[in-house]
UniProtKB/TrEMBL annotation:
Keywords: Pyridoxal phosphate, Transferase. GO terms for biological process: cysteine metabolic process. Pfam families: Aminotran_5 (PF00266). The keyword Transferase applies. Belongs to the class-V pyridoxal-phosphate-dependent aminotransferase family. Csd subfamily. Its cofactor is pyridoxal 5'-phosphate. It comes from marine sediment metagenome. GO terms for molecular function: cysteine desulfurase activity; pyridoxal phosphate binding. Its EC number is 2.8.1.7. The lineage of its organism: unclassified sequences, metagenomes, ecological metagenomes. It catalyses: (sulfur carrier)-H + L-cysteine = (sulfur carrier)-SH + L-alanine. It is an enzyme of class 2 (transferase). This is cysteine desulfurase. Residues 57-426 form the Aminotransferase class V domain.
Length: 438
């Protein structure tokens, strides 16, 4: 067994309501939200399998969500019937592909309540979207002495791009503190704001802890100080509706694969005046209006930022994912996820030596924990042998793990298709792992 870093973070009391401890046979009685989880599960083919001789329990949704049949069929239908490049083809296939591709962009705009679809840029995911803003807006606007604020709970994708542009421009990256419960310190954030803060880049939800940040308040405070705000919405987008106009954010990003869509496609929403003023991120086809050896003029939004052949199938698949989510009762789905988390946290408190990491009052359905004397990766391996998929490690949040003095955690993240029986199996497998490792 590998050595364990001593634990330094004690757990505060659980604030969510306690749920009765029941056996797997009775867990259906807990679903009082009116959400038909079994009907939803039937839409996801990958869940209908066994792993290592056990029915699959997929609890790695913060890393990527599974795909409903509607998304798989939409991608397959494109390749079977419409496969062509978009926008410039003089034939029927290109016309059909273009129509579906741009309809998906409009679906994203409607989903985010954006004013116009030209504010929706296709990217490869949240990571590229943040890099685009850091490189294009940051490279054109930041200078020595400027400050960029990021929180201590950020994913590496919302840290490293700002460090790169800060090194090039002489700006400074500064850290908004997070307390031991995993709650961002808004008072400290407010005190950090001054006229030198040009950008605040924070996640809507922590991927490592599930903490929900008060982004509306933070945006208001940042704007009062004259700063722009980028919100990393990768972990929020699947859990509740997002209205970028109501938030009043300057940029909002998310990845399709976190929203039951395909990998390799993502979205950057931006204020139109900001996007218009920003220089292109990459050069090549599609992002140009005219090219000559004496100079080039750039295309209009959104194409100015979409060099090269895009992920057409990915955009169409994301559009289908949004259609799928829109057909759900999202309030009931959120209540179902909250009930799963409450049930899991109640069971976690009963496990000897288990400590929850991240106990903020406002959380999505993410349960991160460590087991005293056991390395997280050992737990993950034994879980997999029992058909249970969890994530272990630092979750691309090494500065946060350093604050907790941990090599990483075990993270179980729940989604709309998870059940109370999944939670029971998680903790039955954990008990078996304890018996083997301790």
């Amino acid at each position: 067994m590998r050595p364990i870093v001593p634990l330094s973070v004690m757990v505060t009391s659980v604030t969510l309501p306690r749920v009765p401890d029941v056996g797997a046979a009775n867990t259906a009685e807990l679903n009082t939200t009116g959400f038909d989880v079994e009907r939803v599960r039937a839409d996801f083919p990958i869940l209908q399998q066994q792993v290592n001789g056990h029915p699959l329990v997929y609890l790695d949704n913060a890393a990527t969500t599974q795909k409903p049949r509607a998304v798989i069929d939409a991608i397959s239908d494109y390749y079977c019937h419409d496969n062509s490049n978009v926008h410039r083809g003089a034939h029927a296939l290109s016309d059909r592909a273009t129509a579906k591709f741009e309809a998906a962009r409009q679906s994203v705009a409607d989903f985010l309540h954006a004013e116009s679809s030209v504010q929706i840029l296709w990217t490869r995911g949240t990571t590229e979207a943040i890099n685009l803003v850091a490189s294009s807006w940051g490279g054109a606007n930041l200078k020595a002495g400027d400050r960029i604020l990021v929180s201590a709970m950020e994913h590496h994708s919302n840290i490293v791009p700002w460090q790169i542009v800060a090194e090039k421009t002489g700006a400074q990256v500064e850290v908004i503190p997070v307390d031991d419960t995993g709650t961002l310190d808004v008072k400290a954030f407010a005190m950090m704001l001054d006229h030198r803060v040009r950008m605040v880049a924070v996640n809507h939800v922590s991927n490592a802890l599930g903490s929900i940040n008060p982004v509306a308040d933070m945006i208001r405070l940042a704007h009062e100080a004259g700063a722009l705000v980028l919100i990393d919405g990768a972990q929020a987008i699947a859990h509740w509706p997002v209205d970028v106009q109501a938030l009043d954010c300057d940029f909002y990003t998310f990845s399709g694969h976190k929203l039951f869509g395909p990998t390799g496609i993502g979205v950057l929403y931006g204020r139109r005046e900001l996007l218009d003023a920003m220089p292109p991120y990459q050069g090549g086809g599609e992002m140009i209006e005219t090219v000559s050896f004496t100079g080039t003029t750039y295309n209009q939004l959104p194409y100015k930022f979409e060099a090269g052949t895009p992920d057409i199938a990915g955009a169409i698949g994301l559009g289908a994912a949004i259609d799928y989510v829109n057909a759900l009762d999202r309030a009931a789905a959120a209540a179902h996820e909250d009930a799963l988390l409450a049930y899991a946290r109640d069971k976690a408190l009963q496990v000897p030596g288990l400590r929850l990491i991240g106990t903020a009052t406002n959380k999505v359905a993410v349960l991160s924990f460590v087991l005293e004397g056991v390395h997280p990766s050992d737990i993950g391996m034994l879980m997999d042998q029992q058909g249970i998929a969890v994530r272990t490690g630092h979750h691309c949040a090494q500065p946060l793990m350093d604050q907790y003095q941990l090599p990483g955690t075990v993270r179980a993240s729940f989604s709309i298709y998870n059940t109370f029986d999944d939670v029971d199996r998680l903790f039955a497998a954990l008990e078996k792992a304890r018996g083997m490792l301790l």
